[in-house]
Structures are given as structure tokens and as C-alpha cells.
Write a structure and sequence with these properties.
With 465 residues, this protein is mainly alpha-helical. It has 3 domains: 93 residues, Fumarase C, Chain B, domain 1 (Orthogonal Bundle); 239 residues, Fumarase/aspartase (Central domain) (Fumarase C, Chain A, domain 2); 63 residues, Ribonucleotide Reductase Protein R1, domain 1. Strands 1-2 form a two-stranded antiparallel ribbon. Helix 10 packs parallel to helix 12. It is elongated and about 100 Å long. It starts with 18 loop residues before the first helix and ends with a helix.
């Protein structure tokens, strides 16, 4: 157990910290994941202190060697963590002093744990956002590959979960591609506000020592240096923004997963999932459950909760730093882990999904989904849209009352609802024609999808160069 005298801030205290207070205040159980970023930032800080001659080159080299040895200890699993040392910063600094003696006490010159943790989180988020961007791109590539493989697969499109108009399965998949692209762009845009170097802000007021913050930023590859020391240590809007972007991404994944669950049910039977990606029932031997999309759908609420937790923590904090900010890490880390795992497992899941083409095609033959084609037909005959819409609505009602399909009606029956109907209308009454006619930019026509796939492939190649 660490003795009271070992606490690096204990100089003005006359009593040891209460054990319950230590346990309640400690964050090491979760912030230890920041160890490599804390060490990376500390090495850059030591190099800067030497550059401006606050400490000697020899002291700097001893500090850097000690920090690298500590990183090896942590990664080898031999490092001892103790709640009495509160957080990852105190653990590393305490161990550094143990290893190299008095020289280790010079490392914390011109910095505070307040600007130190702000730096660590920004370094962590910078890596995390780039990893999530790669995971999002991988999922997009799978969707794009599926769109190419199943370019001719037809399915019913839905509004209000009611059959609406026939579409290409590839068009449905690329809808999620576009959602993911906006998610990817949101993360990359947020990265600009993460990539700001806060170290050198001190506890809140900056420092009177002649530090070189720009040099630290260069060493750590930051694109900018924070401009206000109070703001630097006290705000976590960049964390909230990351979690907000993550909540939107999880919402998109959840919507897709909801469709996968529906499509895999006996009522739809639109897709078949490989057995390795489903589970069975402990009671019902016939069950094959789509647990992966269900879990992702469920974990969405977890990310939403993290967003609300962070907003609530920040909503009434006076400037500058407050201990409440310790509560930013668990929601952040949990969100990052949830996003990364969800992207990875959904990508693998989709690689093991196959559409049941015949079932989808049969469902697409619901003739009333072609009613809009009849409206467009009449509009092409100079009938006002609202007049055409009303006429076709009455025609559909007539079919329902007389238990007839659109194809079973005679031309004379069609003319009873609109004299503009001619014999050529029957050419419009096919799923293939309906899809082929949607050539307006962004529509479901196959030629549109092929152009879109080609453009996305070109973008992907350009991004990889």
C-alpha cells in the first residue's frame, strides 16, 4: 500500500486520506487505458522542458528512459496499480520517481493534471476517431460489394412498414452506405476540434515559466494549440461531440439491424443468415435467433445514455476545472468500445447474409405497389396530378371491392375512372418497368445504381491512393 508521504500532492495535508474517499475518488480502474497517451505526452513535455533549458538534457534522457520502461512494465502486465494513487498520471509519475529518483520529480514542472488529462483524452480520441473511420469504411465496402453482387435483386420498398413501391435491394443497401458516409464525415469534421493541443495551460491560468507550447504541439503532431488556458482544462465539448456523432451512427446501425431482424423472420424471409452468426433457444429446438443485430440495436441505448450522462455532467459546471469532469471518461471509453465492436461484428455478420431472391421477388409482385405507375401514366397524358391520384385511388378501391388485380381489369373498366387510359397502360404494369422508369437522379433504376457503384468505387480508389 502506498504511504501518505508518497502522495504527490500531500504537502499541505496533515491527515492521511480516508480509505473510503480514496476508493470513491480513484479513477485508475478505467483511466489506465490512457497510459500510452500519458507517457507520450510526458515524453514530449520533458523534451520541451529541455529545449527551453528548464531541465537539463541529461535529466530529460533519464525521464524518457524511465517512462519507456514504465510503458513496457504496463504492457507486460507487471505494473502494480493501487487506488491510493488515484489516476494514471499519479501512477506513472510515482513509478518514475521510484525508478530514477529526484529527477523524476522535475517532470511535472509547468503542467497540472488538469491540462495533462485534457491532452491524454485528445490523443486518445484522435486515434479512436481514425480507428472508427476505418471501421465505418470497411462496413461501407461490404455494403458496396453486396450492392454489386445483388444488383438485380428486387424487393418491396416500404413506407409505414407497408409495401409501397418496388425497389432494387442494392438501392436499399446503398441508402445505409450514404448514412454511414455522413457519419464518417461527422467524425472527421469533429477530429478538427479534437486536434488541438492543451498542454501548457496549467491548472487554469497558464504558467510563468518560459515553455514552448508550439514545440510540444509539433512533437505530438497537433495541428493547433489551444488559445485560452481556462477553456483548455474545463470544457469537454469535443468529447460530447464525439459521443453525439457516435449516437447518430448507432441510430443508423440500429435501423439497419431492425430491418435485418425483420427480414430474417418467417413473416418476411427475405434473408438467410449463416448458422455461425445466430443462436438457438434453450427451450425451443427449432429457433434460429438473429442475436447480433438485436444486440447492436440494444447497445444503441447504451450510447444514448452516455451522451445524456456527459451533457448532464457539464450542464452547470462553473469555470474552470471541477472533479465532476472525472465522470467524462467512462461514458467516453464505453462509447468508443461499443462503436468499434458494433462496426466490426456487423461487418462480419453482413458477409454471412444472403438475400432470398425468389421470396423478395414474389413479395414485389404485389400489384397495388404499381398504382403510382398508373398515376404517372395519367400525368403523362396531361391529367393534373391530384386528379390522377384521385382516379387511381378509386380504381384501387374498386379492385379491392371486386377482388380483382390491376392486371385483371379490362381497358373499359380503366376508362370508367379516367378516359385518358389507353391500351399502352398495361406495359407499365410490371415491377421491372416500374424500377426501370425511376431514372431521375437518386432513383432506384438499375442504370442509376450502376453509375453510383462505379462512382463509389472510383472514390474508394482515390481515397486509398
Amino acid at each position: 500500500m502506498v504511504k501518505k508521504s508518497s502522495k504527490l500532492w500531500s504537502g499541505r495535508f496533515t491527515q492521511e486520506t480516508d480509505k473510503l474517499v480514496e476508493e470513491f475518488s480513484a479513477s485508475i480502474s478505467f483511466d489506465k487505458v490512457l497510459y500510452k497517451y500519458d507517457i507520450e505526452g510526458s515524453i514530449a513535455h520533458a523534451q520541451m522542458l529541455a529545449k527551453v533549458r528548464i531541465i537539463s538534457d541529461a535529466d530529460t534522457q533519464a525521464i524518457i528512459k524511465g517512462l519507456k520502461d514504465i510503458q513496457q512494465e504496463i504492457e507486460a502486465g507487471s505494473f502494480k496499480f493501487d487506488p491510493a494513487l488515484e489516476d494514471i498520471h499519479m501512477h506513472i509519475e510515482h513509478r518514475l520517481i521510484e525508478k530514477i529518483g529526484e529527477v523524476g520529480k522535475k517532470l511535472h514542472t509547468a503542467r497540472s493534471r488538469n491540462d495533462q488529462i485534457a491532452l491524454d483524452i485528445r490523443l486518445y480520441l484522435r486515434d479512436t476517431i481514425q480507428e472508427i473511420e476505418r471501421g465505418t469504411t470497411a462496413l461501407q465496402n461490404t455494403l458496396l460489394h453486396m450492392a454489386e453482387d445483388y444488383i438485380d435483386c428486387v424487393m418491396p420498398g416500404y413506407t409505414h412498414l407497408q409495401r409501397a413501391q418496388p425497389v432494387l435491394f442494392s438501392h436499399q443497401l446503398l441508402a445505409y452506405f450514404d448514412m454511414l458516409e455522413r457519419d464518417r464525415q461527422r467524425y472527421l469534421d469533429g477530429l478538427k476540434r479534437v486536434d488541438i493541443m492543451p498542454l501548457g495551460s496549467g491548472a487554469l491560468a497558464g504558467t510563468s515559466l518560459p515553455i514552448d507550447r508550439q514545440y510540444v504541439a509539433e512533437l505530438l503532431n497537433f495541428s493547433a494549440v489551444s488559445t485560452n488556458s481556462i477553456d483548455s482544462v474545463s470544457d469537454r465539448d469535443f468529447v460530447i461531440e464525439f459521443v453525439a456523432h457516435s449516437a447518430i451512427l448507432m441510430m443508423h446501425l440500429s435501423r439497419f439491424c431492425e430491418e435485418l431482424v425483420l427480414w430474417s423472420s418467417a413473416e418476411f424471409n427475405f434473408i438467410t443468415i449463416a448458422d455461425a452468426f445466430c443462436t438457438g433457444s434453450s427451450l425451443m429446438p427449432h429457433k434460429k435467433n438473429p442475436d447480433i443485430p438485436e444486440l447492436i440495436r440494444g447497445k444503441t441505448g447504451r450510447v444514448y445514455g452516455s451522451l445524456m450522462a456527459l451533457l448532464t455532467v457539464m450542464k452547470a459546471l462553473p469555470l474552470s476545472y471541477n472533479k465532476d469532469l472525472q465522470e467524462d471518461k467512462e461514458p467516453l471509453f464505453d462509447t468508443a468500445n461499443t462503436i468499434k465492436k458494433s462496426l466490426k461484428v456487423l461487418n462480419r455478420f453482413l458477409e454471412n447474409v444472403r438475400p432470398n431472391r425468389e421470396v423478395m421477388a414474389a413479395a414485389s409482385q404485389d400489384e397495388f405497389m404499381l398504382a403510382t405507375e398508373l398515376v404517372d401514366y395519367l400525368v403523362g397524358k396531361n391529367v393534373p396530378f391530384r386528379t390522377a391520384h384521385a382516379a387511381v385511388g378509386k380504381l384501387v378501391n374498386f379492385c379491392l371491392e371486386n377482388k380483382k388485380t390491376l392486371r385483371e381489369l379490362s381497358l373499359e373498366e380503366y376508362k370508367a375512372f379516367a378516359q385518358e387510359f389507353g391500351s399502352d397502360l398495361f406495359q407499365r404494369l410490371s415491377v421491372e418497368k416500374a424500377i426501370e422508369s425511376k431514372k431521375a437522379y437518386g432513383g432506384t433504376a438499375k442504370e442509376n445504381i450502376l453509375r453510383r457503384v462505379q462512382a463509389l468505387r472510383a472514390q474508394k480508389s482515390g481515397r486509398e491512393e
